[in-house]
Amino acid sequence: MSDVRASMAGTVFQVLVAVGDSVQAGQDVVVLESMKMEVPVTSESSGTVREVRIAVGDFVNEEDVLVVLD
User: Fold this and answer.
1) Tell me: the pLDDT tens digits for 17-69?
2) Cβ atoms within 10 A of the Cβ of 1, count?
3) Residue of 52, 48, 9, 1 lying closest to 27 (CA atoms)
4) Structural domain tally of the chain?
5) 49 close to 69: Cβ distance less than 8 angstroms
6) Domain that includes residue 14, residue range
7) What is the DSSP string of 3-42?
8) Chain centroid, CA 21 distance in Å
9) Is the pLDDT of residue 1 over 90?
10) CATH number at residue 22
11) Taking the CB of residue 11, how many other CB atoms lie within 10 A of it?
12) Sign of the CA dihedral 69, 67, 18, 37?
């Protein structure tokens, strides 16, 4: 199991994956908005999305778990 964590604090602008999706290492899974910039969050490992813990509009802090992969 692997977690995709927020690289910075910000608001969730887009969620690019859903439960059951296959994800490859290096793939963008979430886009955060911070200080009027859109910042993609990339998965460091490959796997299948087990859980999406955030929704568009949520505020997240740096290192919060966004997506859980199997």
Assistant:
1) 999 999 999 999 999 999 999 999 999 999 999 999 999 999 999 999 999 99
2) 9
3) 48
4) 1
5) yes
6) 2-69
7) EEE-SS-EEEEEE---TT-EE-TT-EEEEEEETTEEEEEE
8) 13
9) no
10) 2.40.50.100
11) 13
12) negative
Structure tokens at 26: 């290096």
Residue 23: Cβ-neighbour burial (10 angstroms; 0-12, 13-18, 19+):
buried
Q: Does the predicted model carry a pTM greater than 0.70? A: yes
Residue type, 18: A
What is the length of the chain?
Answer: 70
Return the SS3 of 55: coil
Exposure string (b/e) for 30-66, b if CB count within 10 Å is 16 or more?
Answer: bbbebeeeebebebeeebebeebebeeeeebeeeeeb
The tokens for 68 are 């859980």
Tokens of 5: 């964590």
